[in-house]
Specification:
By secondary structure, the protein is an alpha+beta fold. The protein contains six helices and seven strands; from the N terminus they run H-H-E-H-E-E-E-E-E-E-H-H-H. The chain is 40% helix and 36% strand. The two termini are 28 Å apart.
Length: 182
């Protein structure tokens, strides 16, 4: 007997929290597609459980104690909507990509993040096949002191760029995501 839609929604975010390979296989369809992977390392765009496991590694690279506290779930025949709070501590570089290349690297701040998101998950054959999100990224960037820009935060980011630390972080997180996808 398979999981119901609420269990599938919770299961997907448990995979992101933990990188649990067995659970990923249980809840993620082999044809899974993540629309949000465009700002992630390339491995996060892989179909199926591999892409979800890569996304988990990417987020856990930047945020320790990562959790997705579910505050509400609604579902239809082939979709489940999950409202949650992404929480964690920013202890590693948070690297964002554009067209597969480094876009932005936010050096670790040690700050706690806690912000809302809504996720729309498509379902097929008793598994999650697609993912789209509406996130309050402005709040997260504010918690990381990136937006609105603060001089100290901007100087850290510029320093990371100029010294090559941002590029090295992009290589490291890409390798971690690729390894998780294997």
């Amino acid at each position: 007997m398979g999981l119901d839609s609420s269990e599938l929604g919770r299961g997907l975010f448990r995979v992101l929290e933990t990188g649990d390979r067995e659970l990923a296989t249980e809840v993620v369809h082999e044809d899974f597609h993540n629309r949000e992977a465009a700002v992630s390392p390339a491995a996060c765009s892989a179909p199926g459980p591999a892409g979800v496991l890569a996304s988990s590694a990417w987020m856990r690279f930047a945020f320790s104690d990562l959790s997705f506290a579910v505050t509400g779930i609604a579902h239809g025949d082939d979709q489940v909507w999950v409202r949650l709070r992404m929480q964690g501590r920013h202890t590693g570089p948070f690297v964002r990509f554009r067209d597969g290349a480094l876009d932005q690297a936010i050096p670790p701040t040690g700050h706690v993040i806690d912000f809302e998101q809504i996720h729309v998950l498509g379902l097929r054959d008793g598994k999650v096949i697609s993912h789209e999100a509406v996130r309050d990224d402005v709040t997260m960037l504010g918690q990381l002191e990136v937006f609105p820009p603060k001089p100290a935060g901007l100087m850290r980011m510029v320093g990371w760029r100029l010294t090559g630390r941002a590029s090295r972080a992009a290589v490291q997180v890409s390798a971690a995501a690729e390894a998780a996808a294997q």
